[in-house]
Write a structure and sequence with these properties.
six-stranded parallel sheet; Rossmann fold; single chain; about 180 residues; about 50% helix
Length: about 180
């Protein structure tokens, strides 16, 4: 089992690779209102910047961020009751798409895009684990990315509690 540490008090070092997952990126985005948790993650990001850690993201994280940000913002519109796919084609969606695109571009200015090796051997192992019914496929891909890049995972997701990577979090359930 991996080690779990409080993100805001972790001593970041220049050689460290840090992979923030979509939920943390959403918490620190302009979409989320001020809160203690948001301030703690913002503090962690400031420490990451000052220490010159290597910040990385993968396609699964970018995709999840875009989808969750878009759907959350879309629900603020009266016309959303048509369903997301129809709403996405409406004029109301265009400013949301622009905003989420701008947010992702800001993330990619400070983070390097990496990806897990996804060959038949890795795919079989990941799919066999998924078939057991205890894991989210994207979470498995994110963990694979962490392991391949010797990266700590910055997350607020309790699903990562018993995984074999360094977890940096402000989630009290994980810190217990």
């Amino acid at each position: 089992m991996g080690k779990i540490e409080r993100a805001s008090t972790h001593q970041f070092e220049a050689e460290e690779n840090i992979l923030p997952d979509a939920n943390v990126l959403l918490i620190v985005s302009d979409m989320t209102k001020a809160s203690d948790r948001k301030r703690q993650y913002e503090k962690a990001f400031e420490k990451i910047k000052k220490s010159n850690c290597r910040l990385i993201v993968d396609f699964a994280i970018v995709s999840e961020f875009i989808n969750r940000y878009s759907r959350t913002k879309a629900q603020e519109f009266r016309t959303y009751n048509q369903g997301f796919k129809r709403f996405r084609k409406s004029k109301d969606f265009k400013p949301i798409a622009k905003k989420v695109s701008d947010e992702v571009k800001q993330i990619l200015k400070i983070a390097e895009i990496v990806g897990p090796r996804f060959d038949s051997q890795n795919a079989d192992r990941i799919l066999d684990e998924f078939a057991e019914g205890d894991s989210d496929f994207n979470d498995q891909v994110i963990l694979e990315t962490c392991q391949e890049n010797d990266a700590a995972l910055l997350t607020d997701d309790a699903d990562f509690a018993r995984k074999d990577v360094l977890i940096l979090t402000e989630n009290q359930r994980l810190l217990k």
